[in-house]
């Protein structure tokens, strides 16, 4: 009986040490498949229908060289961080009215966190950090 109680306490302690909403980069890579028709990522990434997304976090809207942004995106004056991206990816046209991005959005918070973790791996040159 004591052994079972000890094992239960150890299991509970292990679960408490790992947050329930931990980001899953592998799941984020699967979510990236929703984005890759319009965006590229990684070394050699190019602008397609949408801009390449290397080094997204910390950069300003409308700032990727060589990409033709909508006026709305150029004038949005947003710096991408996790919270802004999460809000944006849920409904891009609500966050930046007039954006060219035609995407229904990702509503699931866990999926957004996983996608964010995946995107954050790539620096501005497309190298995995």
Summary of the model, kept short:
With 129 residues, this protein is mainly α. It is built from six helices and no strands. The chain has helices spanning 2-17, 25-32, 71-74, 82-90, 92-95, 109-119.
Please tell me about this protein's structure.
With 129 residues, this protein is mainly alpha-helical. The chain has a single domain, classed as Cytochrome c-like domain (Cytochrome Bc1 Complex, Chain D, domain 2, Orthogonal Bundle), CATH 1.10.760.10. Helix content is 40%, strand content 0%. The chain contains 6 helices and no strands. It comes from Bosea eneae. Residues 23-123 form the Cytochrome c domain. Pfam families: Cytochrom_C. InterPro entries: Cyt_c-like_dom (IPR009056), Cyt_c-like_dom_sf (IPR036909), Cyt_c_1A/1B (IPR002327).
Please describe the structure with a list of short key phrases separated by commas or semicolons:
Cytochrome Bc1 Complex, Chain D, domain 2, disordered N terminus, 129 residues, single chain, mainly alpha, iron
Describe the SSE topology:
Layout: H1 2-17, H2 25-32, H3 71-74, H4 82-90, H5 92-95, H6 109-119
Helix pairs in contact: 2-6, 4-6
Q: Give the total of domains.
A: 1
Radius of gyration: 19 Å
Q: Please write the CATH class name.
A: Mainly Alpha
For the biggest sheet, the summary is:
none
SSE order: HHHHHH
Domain Cytochrome c: 23-123
Organism: Bosea eneae
Pfam families: Cytochrom_C
InterPro entries: Cyt_c-like_dom, Cyt_c-like_dom_sf, Cyt_c_1A/1B
